[in-house]
Amino acid sequence: xxxxxxxxxxxxxxxxxxxxxxxxxxxxxxxxxxxxxxxxxxxxxxxxxxxxxxxxxxxxxxxxxxxxxxxxxxxxxxxxxxxxxxxxxxxxxxxxxxxxxxxxxxxxxxxxxxxxxxxxxxxxxxxxxxxxxxxxxxxxxxxxxxxxxxxxxxxxxxxxxxxxxxxxxxxxxxxxxxxxxxxxxxxxxxxxxxxxxxxxxxxxxxxxxxxxxxxxxxxxxxxxxxxxxxxxxxxxxxxxxxxxxxxxxxxxxxxxxxxxxxxxxxxxxxxxxxxxxxxxxxxxxxxxxxxxxxxxx
Length: 297
What we know:
Elements: H1 8-17, H2 30-56, H3 67-70, H4 87-98, H5 111-117, E1 132-145, E2 151-158, E3 163-168, H6 170-176, E4 185-194, E5 201-210, H7 211-218, E6 221-225, H8 233-243, E7 247-251, E8 253-259, E9 262-267, H9 278-288, E10 293-296
Helix pairs in contact: 1-2, 1-4
């Protein structure tokens, strides 16, 4: 690779867009592969520059090996402890470089949780005289000035099953405007009616919440399953380090633990109640495994 033709910025964009997934350490795990390639990028560029300088000077390896072959320590193995990207980080990289979400939809990571919070997807909404709850990614925000001079909002929500416009009246729009930016996942509740313009349905919102606020209000607790993982004192220290930034919330934390003769759940004191932010959930899943963290609604 000639650094004069493909610089660091271009290489980073190629990695974040997914164009180099086939060159990563695990082709079918883009979150890990892209994280490792980004971490190894500086060393890879140095190695390529060295290889190019050797070639320009007519220097070649005695056995005809490439720099990577004769110096395996610069390969991916040196970066095996790199933290994998979250789905949000992967998709943001695609959005920044391609202008679209390519490998997944941002709502995909919340599908199981949203089943607990709202119960159904956007494509299941039907006109009704009863209030309904829905959730989705904000893909558009329009501000409309009324005849009285007030400003109301219209959100376009998408959850990878359908898209719906949600109207927010002026007073409420003033209260939530800063929380419903494009790219946010929100929970809305209101009346659903037919949309004569699109032929689908639309909603008039009575309440609008970012998913994090809805989660804080509804989540009964987080459960970490330590069974069979052999966590001792070191495990407690590691957990304490992860939780430190997120303490001071209202979400209780429990640990399911077992040993040879007993098994049970331990609820931590209120001093360890946390703010259940996306980043905390990602750190816990990364540390203990995707299937070892349960969100109890």
